[in-house]
Amino acid sequence: MIVDPKRSEKFDYRRISQQTLSLYLMTQCQLKLRHSVTSLAQTLGYIKATQRTLHDDKALDYLTLKLTERKLMTYLISIVRVQ
Question: What is the pLDDT of residues 58-82, one digit of tens each?
């Protein structure tokens, strides 16, 4: 995007959708409160579904959802390794 500034005009880096923000905050709360694996897996499903419906120009939503998914997966993998 630094190389081609016109390409960066296509993306919206200023806004994040309410749905994405809600999923991020919900995941953070669930991780801090140590929710069950079932509950976390359901949230992961919500994240995946939201990713599929995301428009190409929503860069901040995309990055936030990827971060949330990665945090959730890392936590789930750490739980499985402990057991």
Answer: 889 999 999 999 999 999 999 888 7
HEC string of 59-79 equals HHHHHHHHHHHHHHHHHHHHH
Cβ proximity of 20 and 61 under 8 Å? yes
Q: What is the pTM of this model?
A: 0.81
Domain residue ranges in the chain: 55-83
Interatomic CA distance for residues 28 and 58, integer angstroms: 22
Residue type, 19: Q
Q: How many CB atoms lie within 10 A of CB 75?
A: 17
Neighbours of 62 (CB within 10 A): 16
